[in-house]
Amino acid sequence: MASVLKAIFDCLSGSNDVDTNYVHEKQVVLSPNYHSADTIGADLVNAILTAEKCGKELQTKLDEIVSEYGWKEWIAEKFLASLEQAVKAGAKMAQTMKEAFERAIKEAADFAKEHPAYVTLIALGILVAFAPVAIEALGFAELGPVEGSFAAAWQARYAGYVPKGSLFSYFQRLGMKWHY
């Protein structure tokens, strides 16, 4: 942060003594080993999908891919985007990755069977987190039902009289109070 303030001060004061070592985390220093963020993300996904073993060897390879930049948020974003594209495209996983994926699914299913109360709490937490989005998507807004929405069509069914305590009035109250 200090280097940013110094750079701004130097710019405003006309000083030529600008810190050339400062690099914004989304900028990439052009070097002989320069790789774009997209390339780094794709290389990370390729390394994981083709790994024969998980462990130190894979971790070392991943660290080598990002070594020049470090594990920054912009690299993580590109990695997740590349991984999503690979999954959507039906990328062939190495045997190790396939086994890990299948084991994770089995463990999750076993956990759900052994701890139904926890799974219920997690599901309710997810519902609460997404409820404001769902309420708004249905057309229950802060100022009333949105014209042409599901909420407006539902309100029209009441022919001008919405009963107190009805599900519609509950959703509308949520739409007026909840914002994501």
Automatic annotation (TrEMBL):
Localisation per UniProt entry: Membrane
Ranges that cross the membrane: 116-135
GO cellular component: membrane
Primary location class: membrane
Membrane topology: Multi-pass membrane protein
Keyword Membrane: yes
Pfam families (alphabetical): Ifi-6-16
Keyword Acetylation tagged: no
Keywords: Membrane, Transmembrane, Transmembrane helix
Family membership noted in the UniProt record: Belongs to the IFI6/IFI27 family.
Protein name per the record: Uncharacterized protein
Species whose genome carries this gene: Zopfia rhizophila CBS 207.26
